[in-house]
Amino acid sequence: LSSPLPRTLLYFLLFPYFCSLFFFFYVVSSIFTPKQSNKRTPNEKYSSKSLHVCELQAME
Over 80: is that where the pLDDT of 36 sits? Predict the structure, then answer.
């Protein structure tokens, strides 16, 4: 472990971890948001979805 890993191998190991982390946060947020969020207008849903995509792109 003391020897530095190749960068590609490091990304290969971290990618599933980040994917599961994002999925975990998505599930938790969907559980804790009230059911009234389903009554939003499609425009609000789209704006929140695009905001989430922007946050994901910023994390990369």
Answer: no
- Other CB atoms within 10 A of residue 52 CB: 13
Q: How many domains does the chain have?
A: 1
pTM metric for this prediction:
0.37
CA distances from 13 to 6, 8, 33, 55 (A): 11, 9, 31, 22
50: domain range? 7-59
Cα–Cα distances in angstroms (integers) from residue 51 to residues 16, 17, 28, 45, 48, in the given order:
23, 22, 18, 10, 5
